[in-house]
Design goal:
This protein has 459 residues and is mainly α. Helix content is 55%, strand content 4%.
């Protein structure tokens, strides 16, 4: 398999690949590489942080006093931040790259957030558990998660007064997309999900006394449907397979949709709704490696951060700094902007975030020191801009960088060949001229400069 195709594969289903691994895989066939990626992600490893104190508060002796509620909320906020940092660490170090990347994808598909950490952890591990499994089982499991029943008001959905929030988003955002259902379908399916609730520990509870047991008319069919029945009926529509495949294509292949390729994927997915089979088909498809699909996607903030950490291992001395950096870049894990999630693509870039993105390598890998900024400026103005940048970011982000690992992994790569390993798209003539002027810098400095190019924002 060609090296550039292997790199493309790992940039899309992971966060990059190091030269020593690339050399090893270049001798293998595409099928063996894809099989290896899938095999490495077979095991489900839940992501957890210590929540013993929260569990104790949720025990049978828990009293909803003002003091206890306040303590629980404070602990939940702290633990959610800990999970955020733990997830970034997992993304940076896990061999289960496909499962973790799929978990990241599904977190922006089945969008949900909660102020109860126990429910948040359970929800995201449910995403991780089903990330490569059967989509029908996945949707049913998500519909019963405490975080989701709270987020989309299913808990308030009772036969006396149906709440349509979950029924609407189930079809609009999770399975079918706009135009493939009617308002009456929403009303009728909402009745089927009445009675969904949970206990204090977040375990699913079905309250039969508030469940509507009358016949519902859904997609032209009549029956005493419950929530699982509605999911079954939704997935009978091929539009569901097409909708999911379109989102996966946009996330992993290209923001510009190729309907023929999506239709191929939908044919595979509609057979059994097996997510693993769908991803295998996509990764093995010749069109996945077409030039028009390589180096054309803008990295999300998390992809940018984790990609940097993959090349040069770096730790933030304060986890709060890493959390704040996500805020500045516009993507905080576990904290989606709304029920539709992050838009992705060009929405990642604006006048503020692009400036920060281009300077990010200097911030976290070079102690906020910019060593090359000529571009026609005088020495005095260059010095002032460097000092201003150092003052703004030097104190905000203290990091510890392991350049020794970089030197080991890139020991057999010449400085002038670094771009072949770090950049997914062709270098502009302006960038090429700039790089040619860096002949006297160190390999580490050259790496930082490559990561500071606009081209590095692409994958």
């Amino acid at each position: 398999m060609k090296s550039k195709h292997i790199q493309h594969l790992y940039w899309r289903v992971g966060f990059g690949i190091l030269p020593n691994e690339l050399e090893k895989f270049s001798k293998k066939s595409k099928k063996k590489i894809v099989d290896g990626i899938i095999e490495a992600s077979q095991k489900v490893t839940p992501l957890k942080v210590d929540k013993a104190e929260l569990d104790e508060l949720l025990s049978g002796s828990y009293e909803k006093t003002k003091e206890n509620i306040k303590k629980f909320q404070k602990l939940s906020r702290e633990k959610t931040k800990e999970l955020n940092i733990a997830w970034i660490d997992r993304l940076s170090n896990s061999n289960q790259i496909l499962r973790e990347k799929m978990t990241l994808f599904w977190a922006n598909h089945f969008v949900c957030e909660d102020n109860n950490y126990v429910y948040t952890q359970n929800f995201h591990n449910r995403l991780r558990e089903h990330a490569l499994g059967n989509f029908k089982d996945f949707v049913k499991a998500i519909s019963k998660e405490a975080a989701m029943t709270k987020y989309l008001n299913t808990k308030q959905n009772k036969k006396q007064k149906p709440n349509e929030n979950f029924a609407r988003e189930l079809m609009e955002l999770f399975t079918l997309g706009v135009g493939n259902y009617t308002e009456n379908d929403i009303k009728e399916s909402a009745k089927a999900f009445t009675g969904y609730s949970h206990n204090l520990k977040g375990e699913f509870v079905f309250k039969k006394r508030v469940h509507d047991e009358t016949d519902k008319i859904f997609f032209g069919k009549t029956g005493n449907f419950d929530g699982d029945d509605i999911v079954d009926l939704i997935l009978e529509k091929r539009e569901c397979a097409t909708f999911i495949c379109t989102k996966i294509y946009s996330y992993f292949v290209n923001d510009t949709i190729n309907e023929q390729h999506v239709n191929e994927m939908a044919n595979v997915f509609y057979k059994d709704y097996n997510i693993e089979n769908l991803m295998r088909y996509m990764m093995l498809a010749d069109w996945f490696y077409d030039d028009e699909n390589m180096g054309t996607k803008i990295k999300s903030p998390i992809e940018l951060l984790v990609g940097l950490k993959t090349v040069v291992p770096v730790d933030f001395k304060s986890s709060k700094q890493l959390f704040n950096l996500q805020k500045l870049l516009g993507q905080v894990l576990l904290n989606p902007p709304n029920v539709a999630g992050w838009k992705g693509g060009r929405s990642w870039i604006d006048s503020n975030t692009i400036t920060l993105r281009l300077k990010l390598p200097s911030i976290i890998l070079n102690n906020a020191y910019i060593s090359k900024v000529k571009a026609g400026k005088t020495d005095e103005s260059i010095l002032k801009s460097k000092q201003a940048f150092k003052k703004k970011y030097g104190q905000r982000f203290k990091t510890e960088t392991n350049w020794a690992v970089f030197d080991t992994h890139f020991s057999d790569v010449s400085m002038t060949d670094l771009d072949k390993h770090l950049l997914a798209c062709a270098i502009s003539s302006h960038a090429s001229t700039y790089l040619n002027s860096l002949s006297k810098v160190s390999k580490r400095e050259y790496c930082i400069q490559l990561m500071s190019l606009p081209e590095y924002q692409m994958c």
